[in-house]
Design goal:
Helix content: 40-55%
Radius of gyration: 18 Å
Distance between the termini: 35 Å
Strand order of the largest sheet: 3-4-2-5-1-6-8-9-7
Order of helices and strands: EHEHHEEHHEHEHEEHEHHHHH
Shape: globular
CATH topology: Rossmann fold
CATH architecture: 3-Layer(aba) Sandwich
Strand content: 15-25%
Number of domains: 1
CATH superfamily: P-loop containing nucleotide triphosphate hydrolases
Number of strands: 9
Number of helices: 13
């Protein structure tokens, strides 16, 4: 039987310091513990630090691939947590400012890697911000996960809006041309019978309570419903609340000092319990739209490349 396509997630935020990389690392580890074959890609190309969160020492990084010193397969690093890791590079100007052709080459590298890796789940830890370098990688995936905190609602809304605008640009360039538009811009992301479109999940970090996380999410959603508009040919925005992670003073800093992921260091802590819960939400197969389940990640990469070079 042919292997089902990998499920892919882009973890992004509009600003740094919200815990994006910590969450990506810990969620990937839990996913692997559930018996999945997981790849974590540190696609924060100029400020990569997932290796520190993992306590990993990669043999090669994406900089080696970019400078043609290594093939994309040579940049893979196994970890003691059951996941494979593709490291970025911190502080390199060229990698942080990929040109058009370099971005296409990197997408093609991911394409080759995913085809031969046999992964079931791929998490891309993207850089902070809302430039096209971030958004084009995010929109290739099955779902963009926007990480935010209750203190940066405006930034979270800006990230959602940027995804929506860039998605509209790609639609006008006839990417997603096979997708169907719903009558409403917004659809329920947990209902598989809705037509597919842009999938956005909100993950609220540093919340004082689960109720606070939901309140923040619905405030962002209400603003988006008021101001977002779409042309007739544009597929819908599918948005959902993934969950909230409690604020725990000093926990992640201590995790960094010990170079151990928090879910490994404190498996029974409320933080780790929340990580397991939001991971289960992400991993539910029924939450993906049918045509996303049918279109492999590598085919979506190819479509984006065709759009970018046309």
């Amino acid at each position: 039987m042919p292997q089902p396509p990998a499920r892919t997630f882009a973890v992004m935020s509009n600003k740094g310091g919200v815990g994006k990389t910590h969450l990506a690392v810990n969620i990937a580890i839990h996913c692997a513990r559930e018996g999945n074959r997981v790849l974590l890609v540190d696609a924060d190309l100029g400020s990569a630090n997932a290796d520190i969160r993992l306590g990993a020492r990669p043999r090669a990084t994406l900089l080696d691939f970019y400078e043609r010193r290594a093939e994309i397969f040579d940049c893979l690093s196994p970890t003691s947590y059951g996941i494979h890791f593709l490291a970025g590079c911190n502080g390199d100007f060229a990698l942080a400012n990929l040109g058009h052709q370099e971005k296409i080459r990197l997408l093609r590298g991911f394409d080759r890697l995913v085809k031969r890796g046999g992964y079931t789940h791929i998490f891309f830890d993207l850089g902070a911000g809302i430039g096209t370098r971030v958004l084009d990688f995010a929109l290739v995936t099955d779902e963009c996960v926007i990480v935010a905190t209750p203190a940066d609602i405006v930034s979270a809304y800006a990230a959602l809006k940027a995804c929506w605008v860039r998605y509209g640009n790609l639609c006008q360039m006839h990417y997603f041309k096979d997708h169907t538009r719903a009558k409403e811009i917004f659809t329920d992301a947990t209902t598989i019978h809705q037509p597919s479109g842009l999938r956005i999940g909100f993950l609220l970090n540093q919340v004082n309570s689960l109720e606070e996380g939901k309140r923040v999410y619905f405030r962002i959603l209400d603003v988006a419903r008021t101001f977002f508009q779409a042309p007739e040919e544009m597929p819908p925005l599918r948005i959902r609340y993934i969950g909230g992670i409690p604020y725990v003073h000093g926990l992640l800093r201590e995790s960094e000092r010990n170079k151990l992921p928090a879910i490994v260091m404190y498996p029974y802590h409320p933080f780790s319990h929340a990580i397991r819960e939001v991971s289960e939400v992400l991993l539910e197969k029924h939450t993906l739209a049918p045509n996303h389940l049918a279109i492999p990640f590598t085919d979506r990469v190819r479509d984006v490349i065709r759009t970018l070079v046309s």
